[in-house]
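Researcher: Last one for today. Full complex below.
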Amino acid sequence: MLSFFKKIINKTSSINSVEVASAPEIQENKSAVGGPKIYTRPEHNISRSQINKNALKVLYRLKSEGYDAYLVGGCVRDLLLGREPKDFDVATNASPEQVKRAFRNCRIVGRRFRLAHVVFGRDMIEVATFRGAGDNAKSAPKADQEGRLLRDNSYGTLAEDAVRRDFTVNALYYNIKDFSIVDYVGGMEDHKAGVIRLIGEPELRYREDPVRMIRLVRFAVKLGFTVNPDCEKPIFELAELLANIPAARLQDEALKLFLSGYAVQTYEMLRHYGLFQYLYPAAEKSLSSEDNGFPKMFIAKALENTDQRIVEGKSIAPYFLFSTFLWDAVSTQAEANITAGLPESIAYQQAASKVIAEQVQHTAFPKYIGMAMRDVWAMQPRFIARGGSKAFRLLSHPKFRAAYDFLVLRAETGGADKALADWWTEFQNVSESEQKNMVANLKRSGPKKRRRRRKPIVKSQIDD
Ligand code: ATP
Ligand code: MG
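Model: Here's the assembly. Have a good evening.
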């Protein structure tokens, strides 16, 4: 896992910015920091047996070298809930160079803010030196006109490191010296009450990094926590700041949002706060249109299926869900292209190109995801004409299974002919001679080619 600040810095470094002399909110936080609350070992439930062996090795080694070393962030939060953390992050007062000297298996990553990665075969423990508020002009955090942090690369104390984190429950430190939990921000109380709350002044913290609005939703849903009302209010106004976030960063977030087993609730909450439109504007447009019955049901069912597959331990292809988000936009554009005289396959290809080109401005997914989406979309009209060898050709397509699942989903939610989906279900499950019969019988009884009716369009709407 890359450090959060490294992510922010790397992806925003090209932005032309106005530098500010200091970040007042951070100074404010700093002076507000009193002594921490310490929860001794009997006062919390984290035991060493739950901690990743390699993380423990790192913590002990740093300690024996005379440094302070803590587990921090998501792992402490998840262990307190009795959940298995995704990864274990360490924070220390040792510099990256000092960490490197303490471990043979360590490499330093990151140019501006350097982090140590201690590697154990396929496992890796990230060790970050405490981040500071930056007391001199050179190292002070830099923000743009909207208050977004652009540069943020000085070392600091544990107290400073704590207040720069996003949510109180993400700023708890497990101390390897005495197995206590150190809490500068009231995170333990929020944890016990099940509340997700930003550290410091919400509006300023969102302006510093608008992605925190999305993270708030992700954690509220994942942890089953309620959102502190003061942290909720500013979102409705500040959501638009997400428009300036690099699309690669939003794509990383989108994967975590929708492929972690809580897609349905996450989607509902994102829409409630007006955040979804900054991730998938084309989907938001089809959902808010008058004729929204089908896309609404279709996307809802796709989200539900994604969560269900995770419950069942099945694999998830990220492109599948994202292709459902964009289907209405693609099919609407394709129909416009057909009405304007383009052959069906070209109409779909061009519609797909247009929708993907627009979408990657918001969530920049890799090319192979776009290719897979195209295949799934392009096969939808091809499911209708099945005569001759067409059905057999389709069946041997590498993306047939995904495209068929997509068709079934459409049929279940009113966007495609149920009889057509049933035909394909049967076709896959019968012998070759029966398949030939099914194709031969099509002319007499097969479902008619059917298109959803759309408003007439003018030629200028066609993508070329
Ligand atoms: P997950 O279990 O989803 O990985 P996490 O809390 O570990 O949750 P990460 O994105 O891995 O989340 O970040 C690790 C820690 O870094 C967080 O717990 C938080 O303390 C801090 N952090 C991450 N992103 C931000 C941010 N945008 N602003 C401030 N602090 C952040
Ligand atoms: Mg993490």
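The pocket of magnesium ion (ligand 2) is lined by residues 1, 73-74, 86-87 (CB under 6 Å). The CA atoms of residues 66 and 407 lie 61 Å apart.
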